[in-house]
Amino acid sequence: MITSIPLNRQDYAKSGNNFRSVIPAKQERTPLEIHPIDSGRSKICSENNIMHRHNHFEIVWITQGTGQFAIDTENYDISENLVFCLNPGKVHQLKGDENLKGFVFSFQKEFLYTGRDAVNGNFFYDESFRGNLDFSVIRINSDMQMEIMGIVRNMQRELANISFLQHDVLRGFLYIFLIYLTRQRDSSYTSPAMPQSCGLTKKFFSLLENTYTINHRVSDFASLLSITPNYLNERVKRDSGYSASHNIHQRIILEAKRLIICKNLTLKETAYHLGFDDTAYFSKFFKKISGFNFTDFKLKLTK
């Protein structure tokens, strides 16, 4: 039987069309959290009964059992020693059988990107070069399972005590953990090419991620970067494989789909959240870019 899997984390409460986190008063969050997945002994957490998302990185390591992992609009079969690495903002829901066990690792970008940007950027699809896939799926082989589990146990022991330079020690273990996972990445996976001179493209993607609800045109970003729209399109296409306009449109549609999945917003509400004043125009935009009529897309999710 497939059931929602408890992750032993904060509950989520529904209020209208919004989902908000409910955190006990005076609770302090550590920069790294490790939560067991154990469907056999824990009460089902309301958070994972629905599609939801976070503003932090998550790594989900399945050590036992089978099931499905819904991520945005796709469903993935899960099995033993499969690892999912999720960037902030991904809408997801884990469902598994009664034997499902594993771990969920949660940490903020600020903790991850302290001091060693190169390692982290290469592992977690950098927002600047994520292409069509902004999360990784990794299979851990049996030879490395015990090595990686040892690192996890070290992190758990460190988290169990308040010690001198605890954050530095945790960060060190996390780096080793990420490097080991990188080595286990499927050989069929190819990291997007990153040219030496891609600073402009990185700036564009950083602006896009932070202002896609305000800036919808290439000319908006070109103005912010003090270059021409044609030059921006050319540079972004050379570095990422797609033009600036394509990336802008895809980012807006991705967020629209996430809002529909996570909050079940109406066409008008979705348009408003994404900065579109003209609902009719947004409706045409959504269909042109996604290939689906807005209403048809919502109906597709319910089937």
TrEMBL record:
Domain HTH araC/xylS-type residues, every copy: 202-300
PROSITE patterns: HTH_ARAC_FAMILY_2
Keywords associated with the record: DNA-binding, Transcription, Transcription regulation
One Pfam family it belongs to: AraC_binding
Gene Ontology MF term list: DNA-binding transcription factor activity; sequence-specific DNA binding
Top-rank taxon: Bacteria
SMART domains: HTH_ARAC
Protein name from the UniProt record: Helix-turn-helix domain-containing protein
